[in-house]
Design brief:
0% strand, 72 residues, mainly alpha
């Protein structure tokens, strides 16, 4: 597969958002284990936002990869 600066940038975005997602899930698990319902619910809302960012980042990467295939 071709690589370009945009591919590298998009891969970096996906990695960053997956890292953030892992951090939020770890924090939510901790709040669940400690029975901190308020923190659990706050983190749940944050996770929804990060999940949306993950979907957008992966979608952008896939779209860019399709554009590479069309121009090949």
């Amino acid at each position: 597969m071709m690589t370009c600066t945009e591919c590298e940038r998009l891969h970096g975005e996906v990695q960053d958002v997956l890292t953030r997602l892992t951090q939020w899930i770890t924090a939510q698990l901790s709040s669940f284990r400690s029975n901190d319902n308020a923190a659990f619910m706050r983190l749940d809302k944050e996770l929804e936002i990060v999940m949306g960012a993950k979907e957008r980042a992966i979608g952008a990467l896939r779209q860019h990869e399709r554009e590479h295939r069309k121009s090949a």
